[in-house]
Amino acid sequence: MTDVLILRALGLGDLMTALPALRGIRDHHPEARVTLAAPAWLAPLVGWSGAVDRQLHVASLDHPPPAVAHRPDVAVNLHGRGPQSHRWLAATEPRALVAFCHPDVSEPRSGPAWVGDEHEVDRWCRLVRAFGMAADERRLAIEPPPDPLGGRPRVVLHPGAKDAARRWPADRWAQVAAALAGDGHRVVITGSRDERDLAHRVAETGGASSEDVLAGRLGLLESAGLIAGADLVMSGDTGIAHVATALERPSVVLFGPTAPGNWGPRDPTLHRTLWSGATGDPHGDAPFEGLLRIAVAEVLDASRSALASAPAGATDQASAAGRSAASGAWVRVGRAISPSASPTGAGPMPRGRPERRRSRPARPAIAGAAGPAWRP
Fold first, then answer.
1. How far apart are CA 211 and CA 323, in angstroms?
2. How far apart are CA 94 and CA 285, in angstroms?
3. Over the stretch 78-128, which tens digit does the pLDDT of each residue have?
4. Where in the chain is the domain with CATH 3.40.50.2000?
5. Does domain 155-341 have CATH number 3.40.50.2000?
6. pLDDT 10s digits, 227-258
7. Strand spans (E) along the chain
8. Does domain 3-130 have CATH number 3.40.50.2000?
9. What is the pLDDT of residue 109?
C-alpha cells in the first residue's frame, strides 16, 4: 500500500483552507493510506472532513517527526514555504517530496515558486497541481455536524482570535450584540476556554444572558454544528470564519491586518467582509489600527443585510444541494470592491455541490466526534 504523509501542523483556519488540496491528494491516491500531521485538538474536524485516513498528532515543528509505522512513499508540505518544514518532512525519509522549491534545500528541485500575495486556498491547490494532482478550489464544503441547539434560531458571535492584532474591541462587539438582540435575534457567544472571560465581557456589556455564552463549553465538532445551524456568524479573521465558509452559512468577517484577498471568503451572496484596506503584522500584541477603523454601524449594517437575505439554516437544508463556498468578493470599509477588483484578481467561481464524506472504515488514529472544548 502507498503511504502519503501530509504536513499542516497549524490552526483551524489553516485546516479548512487546505481541504481542496487535501481532497485532490486523496483522489490522486485513492488506494493509499493518507495521513495528516496536524495538532491533536483538530482531530474531530479532520475525521469529519473525510479528507484523510489517519492523523499524526503534531503540534509544531519544534521537535523531530514522531516515529511512523511506514516510510512515506510521498510526503506533501502543505505547511509552509520552507526550509524548516521541508527538513521536517525529509527526516521521515520519503521517497518523493511535494513542496515549493527553496534555495536552502535541495529537494524538490522541480517544485513551483512560492508566491507571497496569493489566496491560501489557491496556493496549496497550485502546489499539488504542479505535481500532477488535480485540485479544485471549490471543494471547501463539509457536511453539517449535529446541531447542539436542535435547530433553534441563533446568531453566532465569535469575538476572539489567537493574536490580539486580529481582535476587534469587546465593547464594540457588545454594541453589535445588543442591537441584534433588540432586533429580536438570539445572539450566542463562542470561543475557546481561554476566551471565556472575553465572551462574558461581551455578554454582560451587551445585555446577553450567561446561558448564551458558549465559550469553552463546546467541543470542536459541536462548535461546527452550532455554526451549521446559524442564521449568521460574526467574527474577525479567525478559524471560525473558515468553518462558516465550509458550512455555507452567512457571515460577517472583519479583516485586518491580513487582507481578505489572501484569506477571505469568496461568495458575495453569503459573506460580507469588512476591511479598511490597511495591512500589517497579523501577530501583533494590540488590535491593528486598520481593524479599529471599522465602525460599529458598518458591522451592524452588514449583519442586518446578511440576515435579511440569509438562507435557511443547515438543519433545514442538510439534504439539499448546497452552494460552493468559493465565489469571490470583498467589501472595503467606505466602498465596495467588486470580485474582478479583488486584491488577488480572483473572480466568482461556479457553484457546486457540498462535499460528501467518503464511506470509509473508522480510523482509530483520528479522535472521536465531539472531542474536548476546543482551543485556538
1. 32
2. 39
3. 999 999 999 999 999 999 999 999 989 887 878 999 999 999 999 999 999
4. 3-130, 155-341
5. yes
6. 999 999 999 999 999 999 999 999 999 999 99
7. 3-7, 33-38, 54-57, 74-77, 96-98, 155-158, 187-189, 232-236, 251-255, 271-275, 330-332, 335-337
8. yes
9. 74
